From TrEMBL:
Record's keyword annotation contains Metal-binding: yes
Protein name listed in UniProt: Phosphohexomutase
InterPro entries: Carb_Metab_Reg_Kinase/Isom (IPR051804), Man6P_isomerase_Firm_short (IPR014628), MPI_cupin_dom (IPR049071), PMI_typeI_cat (IPR046457), RmlC-like_jellyroll (IPR014710), RmlC_Cupin_sf (IPR011051)
Organism field: Flavobacterium psychrotolerans
CDD domains for this protein: cupin_PMI_type_I_N_bac (cd07010)
Length: 320
């Protein structure tokens, strides 16, 4: 059979810091007022995405990769990763601050967890007034200074807090200490990994009065103690794929769509589009597919040509 643009049922996650914006801003069918994450595209064990449209509706992403590895993933991606889907796509709603955390690199994650590391990027979709993120240290630091401040509950004094607004992008290499702040809706693109070392959680307790587990010792040799420049500046030329992040793990472009854009692919990689504002269509061989803010669509690598049309802000993601 011929593959087609695939959409998936969102995998909704309750979080102590979550809210209701995934419904009010993105139209997700959340069932609680503390829904923090919508996993749009995942093959994480126990959280594998299920196709929501077309002939393959009801089948899992893993099933389709196993049946059509080159056609779906692309020849280069299949050669590099086998039948593993290498990326995870999410939308997040932070009603409260997330925990301060860090992710290990590939080497450490493989050794400890038999997992990929977790390089990621954030695209800020919506920001309340004075919303901020924590990203890295204010100045170059070291393990001794970090532990002293952690024990004294003064960690925030040595971490860099940055005010953000809609459209800001941050690229977080493994080892970067970080936290999404309250009042933000974020599109997140990351390696397929759910390995997080939680450093500090503001002494919060859940409904049962329990604090969440911290991973202070595991984090010590995972942290990059040097100051980082995580913010990415990028062009916003209409009806063009503007480069935002280009790394070993993924390439992300920003498309301010106001009309149409012809896209040609070489079959090396799948492409994912995340609609962060507005609405648009994708036309393939005369068949028109409609998407709106909050939608995520996977274009199999075997589709060589498509046309994007509409008025929207769109993230375009693939692997080189």
């Amino acid at each position: 059979m011929k593959l087609y643009p695939l959409q998936f049922n969102p995998i909704l996650k309750e979080r102590i810091w979550g809210g209701t914006k995934l419904k009010t801003e993105l139209g997700k069918p959340i069932a609680s007022e503390i829904t923090g994450e919508s996993w749009e595209l995942s093959t994480v064990e126990g959280d594998v995405s299920i196709i929501a449209n077309g002939e393959l509706k009801g089948k899992s992403l893993t099933e389709i990769i196993n049946a059509f590895p080159n056609e779906l993933l692309g020849t280069e991606v299949y050669s590099r990763f086998g039948k593993q889907f290498p990326l995870l796509f999410k939308y997040l709603d932070a009603r409260e601050d997330l925990s301060i955390q860090v992710h290990p690199n590939d080497e450490l994650a493989k050794k400890r967890h038999n997992s990929f590391g977790k390089t990621e990027m954030w695209y800020i979709m919506q920001a309340d007034e004075n919303a901020r993120i924590i990203v890295g240290f204010k100045e170059n630091s070291n393990a001794k200074e970090y532990v002293e401040n952690l024990n004294n509950k003064t960690l925030l004094t040595i971490l860099d807090s940055v005010h953000v607004q809609s459209g800001d992008v941050f690229f977080l290499e493994t080892g970067t200490v970080h936290a999404i702040g309250a009042g933000l809706v974020v599109a997140e693109i990351q390696q397929t990994s759910d390995i997080t070392y939680r450093l500090y959680d503001f002494d919060r307790v859940d409904a049962q009065g329990k604090t969440r587990e911290l991973h202070v010792d595991l984090a010590l040799d995972a942290i990059n103690y040097n100051r980082v420049e995580a913010k990415r500046n990028y062009e916003k030329t209409e009806n063009k794929s503007n480069a935002v992040v280009d790394c070993h793990y993924f390439t992300t472009n920003f498309i301010p769509l106001n009309g149409s854009l012809e896209v040609t692919k070489n079959g090396n990689s799948f492409t994912v589009y995340m609609c962060t504002e507005g609405a648009f269509t994708i036309e393939i061989n005369g068949i028109v597919n409609h998407y709106k803010k909050g939608d995520t669509v996977l274009i199999p690598a075997s589709i060589p040509e498509l046309n994007l049309n509409g008025k929207a802000s769109v993230l375009e993601i693939y692997i080189k």
